[in-house]
Amino acid sequence: MNEDQIIIIGAGPAGLMAAQQLALKGFKVHVYEQNKAAARKFLVAGNGGFNLTHSEELESFVQKYEAEEIQNIVRSFDNQKVIQWLEDLGITTYIGSSGKIFPTKNFKPIQVLKAWLDELERLRVTIHYDHTFLDFDDNKVYFKNNDQDLSVKYSKLILAMGGGSWKKTGSDAKWVETLTHKKIQITPLQSANSGYNSDVKFHQLQGQYLKNIKVSFQENHKIGDIVFTKYGIEGSPIYYLNRFTRKHDFPVTINIDLKPNLSEAEILDQLKETSKISSVLKRNLKLSTTAINLLKTLDKESYLDIKNLAKTIKKFPIEVLSFRPIDEVISTAGGVAFSELNFNLELKKFPDVYCAGEMIDWEAPTGGYLLQACFSTGFWVGNSISNS
Ligand SMILES: Cc1cc2nc3c(=O)[nH]c(=O)nc-3n(C[C@H](O)[C@H](O)[C@H](O)COP(=O)(O)OP(=O)(O)OC[C@H]3O[C@@H](n4cnc5c(N)ncnc54)[C@H](O)[C@@H]3O)c2cc1C
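That is the input. Now the predicted structure with flavin-adenine dinucleotide docked in place:
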């Protein structure tokens, strides 16, 4: 047994993966978690379909992350390795129709977590619940536990406290203030995998879906389903565009192609056939009721001008005003800047202190890419320490 005292803050996927790697190499690992249970956000992710990674071919997979640093880390512990790791825990997986990878139906999210925690127990990882991280210095880390202050010595410290959404899961991002105080640059946390607030005229479509449409912003686009809500729009193609719209000031205009498999000219040809526009939209073009309702938000003149209508069916503009509030979105962009970290994800200003998971400044769409990067960074930090 290696006598180094490894302390990990945060029992989410990133912290637990680092713990497993280090324990496998014979280190004594202590994980400190402020909740009374591990990985609450991991379980929340399981509520809406537990997609743990994606089957996409690696080179296009890593393009989902903008930061090159994270691309390399994901390459080192990739989707195939996640599948193998799950198998080693006794969790079999399957590829869903959209390429997402899920545990097979006989495994509920809580069973996946239990299998993982059982393995950590077998490896003698100790998890200390109800311990809230407050601060650290060169060799000690400070906690609050049941109103009592305590400090623990560390030889290596791993910070894996997550992003800032869904605070009730424990990821309250209070670490931002602590690290900022230590002059560590933090890219401000922002909503990611977020719906957009839109112009009020679309709110009347609340609850209606558009399926298999193409949503685009500039040259970036994604096919899928979206839903109108009381404030705007939600859906995976919308989340995909977050990363690109973020670089511009709101409001920005995104476009919807309501008929991706037909060209504008083909649509116009159909519209020319009869003066009964609504009948062409429904019968010939087979547009859904929601798509037709959306077109009806146009002013009368634009709707009746068939050239304009054909163009708008291919490129319906929706002005979006802002992201949804951080607390309700799936993840956050921003976090510890890569400029503060060395190759091993160790803080340059605090040697022996490492970061992993969503608290680092990267973002990715849903579809398994978030959890993948959390597993990969946890693995990377664990390996960096054990190889050092
Ligand atoms: C609704 C929802 C759906 C999602 N769906 C998917 C999906 O389908 N696919 C996907 O890939 N990802 C999904 N995610 C995202 C994924 O769950 C997160 O990216 C991932 O859990 C982040 O892992 P992490 O280990 O970095 O941090 P977290 O999972 O946030 O864990 C951090 C841990 O640190 C603890 N902590 C924080 N501060 C302190 C402190 N001061 N002291 C002690 N402990 C502290 C927290 O309590 C928490 O347990 C979803 C998220 C949500 C909210």
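The chain has a mean pLDDT of 96.
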